[in-house]
Write a structure and sequence with these properties.
With 279 residues, the protein is of the alpha/beta class. It has helices at residues 8-12, 20-25, 51-64, 98-114, 130-144, 165-170, 176-185, 220-223, 237-258, 270-276; strands spanning 32-37, 73-75, 119-124, 147-151, 197-198, 208-209, 214-215, 230-231. The chain has a 4-stranded parallel sheet, sandwiched between helices. Strands 5-8 form a two-stranded antiparallel sheet. The chain has a two-stranded parallel sheet with strand order 6-7. Helix 3 (51-64) packs across helix 7, helix 4 (98-114) runs parallel beside helix 5 (130-144) and helix 7 crosses helix 9. The structure holds zinc ion. Zinc ion binds next to helix 3.
Length: 279
């Protein structure tokens, strides 16, 4: 018995599980198609290079279990590879180039549109994909007319009571947050004794920050010896389970909101603005 595709997400909402006449007949007005985009890249000495893609699949699996039965929300096969060239100094990193990933996303979106859908969500679990996905989302909007949405699901969970301030600001890779999640969903894939803590040092700079107002371009070997940016030693499976629950709760609600969104409703008509005045 082949066990990979189990549970509501994969049995009930996995679009390519259906036949083409079934897909053709689906109601599309409020349908949302989700494309998870992950990465295969080093995640320190303690976690698998599959980490980001694994987290994306775990998040969407848990989230789709929480949807009401009548939600028109569909999952595409997750794209395991992302743009990870900042990690190429570490073995096991398999990266697409920026132009390849952009073209793959455009091709998939074009087919989503041709199948009759109107909304596409890019669900991203790798920080290094972010800038490109913002560009891709707009390019898809322009070239296909689809309504396109973007989310990094980690941003939906409040972590203030779970992770330190330092971790929330600088724990961008293989630290407490990601390690806790993988310990929760695939404990045997983590080597707990190999966990380390490593933070980069930008304390003396007022303007230069890692992801703030003035940024410097970096690759991982510029900012980390171990491939970790964060404190993986603080991670626990319990914490990961709480984080996953919070993300799934918020994302399930967000998906339903997105499927009611119509971009034509966003623009305010001029007479309304004039009525309101400036004050
Ligand atoms: Zn990661």
């Amino acid at each position: 018995m082949f066990k990979r595709y189990e549970g509501a997400a994969w049995e009930e909402r996995f679009l390519p599980r259906l036949t083409f006449p079934e897909i053709r007949a689906l109601p599309k007005d409020h349908a949302l198609v989700i494309l998870p985009v992950g990465a295969v890249e080093q995640h320190g000495p303690h976690m698998p290079v599959m980490t980001d893609s694994l987290i994306g699949e775990a998040v969407i699996t848990r989230t789709l279990e929480r949807l009401p039965e009548d939600a028109d929300i569909w999952l595409l096969p997750p794209l395991p590879y992302g743009k990870s060239n900042e990690h190429l100094d570490f073995a096991g990193t398999i990266s697409l180039s920026a132009s390849t990933l952009l073209n793959v996303l455009l091709d998939i979106a074009t087919c989503v549109k041709r199948s009759g859908f109107r909304r596409l969500l890019l669900l991203n679990t790798h920080g290094g994909n972010m800038d490109l996905l913002y560009v891709a989302a707009r390019e898809i909007r322009i070239s296909t007319g689809l309504m396109v949405f973007y989310v990094s699901p980690g941003s939906l969970a409040d972590l203030t009571d779970l992770c330190s301030e330092e971790e929330r600001e600088f724990g961008i890779h293989a630290g407490d947050y990601e390690t806790s999640l993988v310990m929760a969903v695939k404990p045997d894939w983590v080597l707990p004794d190999k966990r380390v803590a490593e933070f980069l040092d930008v304390g003396d700079f007022a303007y230069l920050t890692l992801e703030g107002k003035i940024r410097f371009a970096w690759v991982m070997s510029d900012i980390s010896e171990t491939g970790v940016a964060g404190d993986a030693t603080l991670a626990s499976a319990d914490k990961g389970a709480i984080i996953l629950d919070r993300i799934a709760d918020a994302l399930a609600k967000a998906l339903q909101e997105i499927s009611t969104f119509e971009i034509t409703d966003v623009k305010t008509r001029p007479e309304k603005s004039i009525d309101k005045g400036c004050s």
